[in-house]
Fold this protein.
Amino acid sequence: MADTYDILIIGGGPGGYVAAIRAAQLGFKTAVVEREHLGGICLNWGCIPTKALLRSAEIFHYAEHGANYGLKIEKPSFDMEAVVKRSRGVSAQLNGGVAYLMKKNKIDVIWGQAKIAKAAKGAPVEVSVGKSAKPAVEPQNPVPKGVLGEGTYKAKHVIVATGARPRVLPGIEPDGDRIWTYFEAMKPKAMPKSLIVMGSGAIGIEFASFYRTMGADVTVIELLPQILPVEDAEVAKLARKQFEKQGMKIMTDAKVAKVEKGSDGVTVTVETKGGKSETLKAERLISAVGVQGNIEGLGLEEAGVTIERGVVKTDGLGRTNVSGIYAIGDVAGPPMLAHKAEHEGTICVEAIKGLDAHPMKSTQIPGCTYCQPQIASVGLTEAKAKEAGREVKVGRFSFTGNGKAIALGEPDGMVKTVFDAKTGELLGAHMVGAEVTELIQGFVVAMGLETTEEELFHTVFPHPTLSEMMHESALDAFGRVIHM
Ligand SMILES: Cc1cc2nc3c(=O)[nH]c(=O)nc-3n(C[C@H](O)[C@H](O)[C@H](O)COP(=O)(O)OP(=O)(O)OC[C@H]3O[C@@H](n4cnc5c(N)ncnc54)[C@H](O)[C@@H]3O)c2cc1C
């Protein structure tokens, strides 16, 4: 029998490694078991490498439009291998950074596939670690120095932070060649001439935006009536208009019914509203229909842990129904976002310590999509606020009325705010346009402090910045807008 820990975390993604650091700060003897790569999907196949790809696309876009800024740039081109190499390099740098943080915080890293072997009331939980059962897409190389290996470990508290993987639709199974998931889409060997993206959530739209900007013929197919289905309808509509202006084809209320693979591409049968059907051809298809929690093979069912709708059921502080077993991040349910995973990790460990941990308020978790134009939101959409029976006041401010947006050459976009008409409470904020993913945090802080319109009116926003539109949008909701 190897070491006994206070807290052992299965999974070294943003949920797991942040929980581990907080646990170490609070004086717990801590270990993280990871089977593939520190930093999880976020650092290796999600948040970070996509943003690196999108940055290349953004710079390419500006180079193509240099004349708009009075610049003379010969026809720009790109080397896809170098673009991908940069993105992989950014991931590698950050995952090395996580290894450093583990060492600095004296957290043991155990390399292998973990499974809960025994969980009995009043006794430490036993975790067995064996060889990875999953062939790594691109395993961490080199494995960090000084890691522990296979064996059985004991811990008073075990936190499951095993993340998620691509959801697969029957009959449309990814093959790594014609039908891609985010793994293949992240490192294309060459630029596809044409591409169908199935699903228009954040992951689908970010890849659609990247490939379209780099010149591919892109069609997005969405089952629901609007793209970016969780976003405010007005924001999604404005984004769609921009994507279409860039040449993206978008089909909503459309279902991918069949995908046939050939030697030169895919033939996709799409059922549209009213029972019509259309056939599309493309070189590749990206399946971006969501993710599903990694709940299998962990000994959760044997331990009696409740699983609901494919994710581990927790109580808001990461506790499952089995004493000593916790779950955080993607495996504990939506929204499946890195910052939600990190925050849940912190809350979970602080609750174990007996600190005054507050369950996360799901309406205060921001969501960002880093396409061009960017999308960012927090809180209730106008429709959801009305559905909840709130009487609302809505403010809108267009990028065309903002000096900084004009100076940047980014006049397309909007900041929308939703307030409770009776109390003035800020219920939600929704934005589309340049850099809005950096702006949203202002509204997140405001909502956390239970802001009303009055505090926003009294806040001084620096000039000239895009943030001034946040002020103007709030003013607009109450008939006081200045620059419109
Ligand atoms: C293409 C893409 C783009 C994204 N962009 C964003 C974004 O911009 N912003 C954002 O907030 N979110 C984004 N996400 C989502 C984000 O990546 C996830 O929400 C986040 O990684 C979840 O963190 P986690 O710690 O719960 O799980 P993960 O990051 O999935 O980490 C889980 C870890 O557990 C390990 N593991 C699993 N099972 C075992 C086992 N049995 N034993 C040992 N180890 C195990 C895995 O190898 C993995 O390293 C994106 C996702 C994708 C796919």
About this structure: The longest helix spans residues 80-104.
